[in-house]
Amino acid sequence: MQQPPDAPNNSHLPEPFWRTKTLEEMTPIEWESLCDGCARCCLLKLEDEDTDEVYLTRLSCKLLDVGKCRCSDYPNRFSKMPDCIQIDPEKVRKLAWLPVSCGYRRVAEGRDLAWWHPLISGDPNTVHEAGVSVRGWARSEAKVHVDTFHKYIIPELPDVG
Questions:
Q1: How many angstroms separate the CA atoms of 92 and 110, rounded?
Q2: How far is CA 144 from CA 8, 46, 52, 72, 148, in A?
Q3: What is the pLDDT of residue 90?
Q4: What is the value of pTM for the model shown?
Q5: For the chain, which residues score pLDDT lower than 70?
Q6: What is the C-alpha to C-alpha distance for residues 161 and 105, in angstroms, rounded to an integer?
Q7: According to the model, what pLDDT value does residue 147 have?
Q8: How far apart, in whole angstroms, are the C-alpha atoms of residue 157 and residue 99?
Q9: How far apart, in whole angstroms, are the C-alpha atoms of residue 126 and residue 38?
């Protein structure tokens, strides 16, 4: 992972919304902007029916454009993918599989956004340049037979939080 650039002195600017508002107080535009574009939440999870343990895979939802780390049909994702989860403040606090680097999780836990987050860097590509996104190593579930999904289980994601 690349190191963060030297931070500019912005002490004269007002505090950004994610430092002054709770997740529940954010406008829809503010909420959406907390997404860093890593697409880690779009990775498939496999659940062991006997133990209820959840395993993360390097397979992405078939709607994810892995190169862009963006949903190819974001407005219709819930009707096309019934497993897609609407992330809301309550789920952010409950879903253990959300990465520690997730902007939503960081704010919910009282942490600031990472240096590579587009709201900090001003550039949506820093999440990829920092090696945080799934770009370059995730594979679409559409290209893999369901009987082999278990072969794509990953031990855990690197901690980039």
A1: 13
A2: 45, 14, 24, 18, 7
A3: 97
A4: 0.85
A5: 1-12, 156-161
A6: 10
A7: 95
A8: 8
A9: 10
User: For residue 97, what are its two tokens?
Assistant: 């599989």
Q: Which amino acid is at 119?
A: L
The whole-number pLDDT of residue 76 equals: 96
Residue 157, pLDDT score: 62
Determine the straight-line distance between the first and last CA of the chain, rounded to whole angstroms: 12
3-class secondary structure per residue, the chain: CCCCCCCCCCCCCCCCHHHHCCHHHCCHHHHHHCCCCCCHHHEEEEECCCCCCEEEEEEECCCEECCCCEECCHHHHHHHCCCCCCCCHHHHHHCCCCCCCCHHHHHHCCCCCCCCCHHHHCCCCHHHHCCCCCCCCCEEHHHCCHHHHHHHECCCCCCCC
CA dist 29 and 36 (Å) reads 13
